[in-house]
Amino acid sequence: MPSSNVLLDADALDRALTRLSYQVLERNAADPRRIVLIGLPTRGYTLAQRLASRLAPIAGFEPPVGKMDITFHRDDLELNIPVPQVSHIPFDITRRVVVLVDDVLFTGRSVRAALAALSDLGRPAAIQLLALIDRGHRQVPIRADFFARKITTELEDTVQVKLTEVDPVPADVVEVVSP
Amino acid sequence: MSPTEYMAPTTPSRQWKHKDLLSIRTLEPWEIDLIHDTASAFKEINSRAIKKVPALRGKTVVNLFVEPSTRTRASFELAANRLSADVISLESSSSSFKKGETLKDTGLNLQALNADFMVMRHSCAGAAQFLAERLRTGIINAGDGAHEHPSQALLDTFTIRERLGRDLKGLKIAICGDIMFSRVARSNIWALLKLGADVTLVGPSTLVPPVFKKLGVNISHKLEDILPEAHVIMLLRIQHERQRQALFPSLGEYVSLFGLTAARFRKCRPDVVIMHPGPINRGVEIDSELADGVNSVILEQVTNGMAVRMAILYLLSGGQPLHVAPGAPLAPHITSPAS
Amino acid sequence: MMKLAPRDPSLVSTYDRKLGTRSWALTGGRVIDPANRRDEIGEVYVRDGKIVAEIPVNESVEVIDCSGLIVCPGLIDLHVHLREPGQGSKETVATGTRAAAAGGFSTIVAMPNTKPVADGPNTIAWLRQRIAETAIVNVYTTGCISQNMAGEALAPIGSLKQAGVVAITDDGKCIQNNELMRRALEYAQMFDLPLLDHCQDYALSEGGVMNEGYWSTVLGLQGWPAIAEEVIVGRNALLAELTGGTVHCQHLSSAGSVRLVREAMQRGVKISAEVMPHHLALTDESIAGYDTNFKMNPPLRTKRDIAALLEGVADGTIEILGSDHAPHATYEKEVEFSEAPFGILGLETELSLFVKTLIEPGVISWAKMIEKLTINPAKLLRLDKGTLSPGADADITLIDPAREWVVDKEKFQSKSRNTPFHGWELKGKAVATVVAGEFVFSC
After folding, report:
1. Which long-range contacts (CB under 8 A, 24 or more apart) does C338-343 make?
2. Minimal Cβ distance to A81: which of B9, B40, B317
3. Is C171 considered catalytic here?
4. Chain B touched by A73 (CB under 8 Å)
5. Residue contact B40–A86, C-beta within 8 A
6. Which residue range(s) make up the domain with C67?
7. What ipTM is given for this predicted complex?
8. Which pLDDT value is given to residue C21?
9. For the domain B150-301, what is the CATH superfamily, name and number?
């Protein structure tokens, strides 16, 4: 029987996003207007949109949000051919600070692909990584600049981030499911 | 608006399973959707300053054009390049065909060069299937005789979806011209029917024989009759070569009966979509100004062709048997499940 | 139809022995000899290579038990391509006649579209020499109607007759010039030579590689419409009527052709027709996979055509069955569909396919079928064959109507492998073929 363990409920997630938006702003206090948020589909993009609206009142402006598909930069296309999503980045990233947003940081390979994909779009001043959950088991040397929770998991576990915008749930929830 | 935005979210079960793309007739409707969705992603990439992705890095694409073609070949060539594949193009003038080598031997030789895909244009119907059944290499049919031209129909239906921002169910679509000898017409008939459109073939009774009704389409020999209700008019290139001389008397008579003139255009819906696979004969199939007008998507078809062909190459790379050892059994070309 | 006793499997090798005596008797089999209206369990006697009415009582006789078998005159196939001279890589007289023997045929008729074509006495003489040296069944030759089979000028039909041909034909091609066809029919009458015609209007079938219809439309292959055959069948009927000549329409494929032949026969025109197994067993839908083993001329047609052909066989419009045995090397067929040569192997599957298409569904009786495979072609070509009458050559075929077998092209005697029937499970098979009193095949 698979068991699940709630990591964040809706309220906790809400607080975590507020905290994360302050952290992003603090880190880029020198020139906050350079911030752009780029989410990885599907939930990284949803989180990026939420962060942007959190940042608006505290930063005094709403940073632009983009969605970037990384399928074609994956290193496992020999094994699996995922259906890509359409990227949508309606701004130039050159000389901006790109905050990459993903829901779960695991092996780090998606982020590696995202870094490669970003380099096709321009040359940002800096790239920072925001992951809601860092669950360990990295396979490439990548770390998150911002995260809500860092947890220890078994390799077989799955960390599920369910957001009301994209998932059929009544309220947001983040849980670890063990087989 | 891109096609994905109105379609069901992608699910992992939507996985391309074929080694080859030989025809539309043998595709499932969801497979057409899958190619369209994938093409949307590539279309975005094609709009960037850097239009290249590493998805097919290390793969080899051979364009084998036994029948000459400029635009389809260029489109596939560029598509393969933008996927970072290595690509070579062989045209009939430079290939061994003139030295009497059989198609099978040419295919076996290209396979021996470890080609991953062959994009193939040939004047004989069934030529692509012929090679697909005999090679491990993935075959993409870029036009075989009067049989099919699948990538053209996929880009045409993609373009309709994009332009109208909706699916094709119930759309009235007219295909006008030399239907009998047209692979573009056949592929489009199947694609449009599978996507739920209502198709009418229009042209002289000799070029649009009644047997086509058995495919599930309507037939008309009077363009005016279908203009007021057609959402889309696809015009096919018309030629008056020797073998057509018993089929219609002259281009002039064709234009007078079936050319999309300004006068006929006034009978159309204001939002009618005008399509042509090219190359167009201005003043023959279509009035020159209409070809450049706001209703025409002729150049969008060309742009979308790139994205659709990138999608085909990308998806087929998942239908490939990977790292096939020399002498390994030939994969069945119909269902070779991706690992 | 009479009941046949089940065959004893222990007898399988009986026919294979070298017969030590001059005289022998086939006993216990169902003797079907349509020429003599004979269909009964009975005996057939052979002495010195001839059929005899009885064996003198004091003479020793070897008895062969044929219980459960049909004993009939050696089968005749009047439409075979042996490919010699010139195309020995496809078939030879040696391999082609072995294929015939394996299919139960003791007599075959070779078509003249060889390389060079058999349009003069020298080629016929060469071929007859080849036959004398290498054939294991009777082979009759035919000559061309037109010089070089080009449809423009008459071939030397009188010289061909003297050289031994039994018919004239441009098979594989069709004379388009109606004037030439008329004169050929008139001229051939001097020599009592029937004219066998491959019925195909070139303008109507130009570029055609399969039946014109739904499947040619779907597959994008150029259609070879039934009307292209029917126009020529109609012409042949009119010209035969005008000239009083004998015209035989080869390999009918379409419903319209059957109707035209039937109507002409009713008017008393000297016209006849043949049908091949593939035109009864297969339709144009078989081509959906572009397999060139389904590419024939005339092309496979529709279920409706098959129904009309069967009706024609049943009502006597089609009085002759043949195979159009057309060997092609594998490499020649391993090409694009429209580039591949027309034609398939026939001899080794012919009888079983006719059993499947004519006997099993009850279209005609065994006796009727054997008539169309023996005495009817013999009559058309004036051959002294196709009967078990005393005095006739002892050409005999033994058929096991219950024998089940699976077609395996790799086991064919033919030099080629181009059959669409590989893997088919068939019932009813020739188990022995006797030519002039000698077993040339048994299994």
Report:
1. C338/B124, C338/B125, C338/B126, C338/B145, C338/C209, C338/C221, C338/C222, C339/B124, C340/C292, C340/C295, C341/C295, C342/C295, C342/C296, C342/C297, C343/C81, C343/C295, C343/C296, C343/C297, C343/C418
2. B317
3. no
4. yes
5. yes
6. 9-72+391-442
7. 0.89
8. 57
9. Aspartate/ornithine carbamoyltransferase (3.40.50.1370)
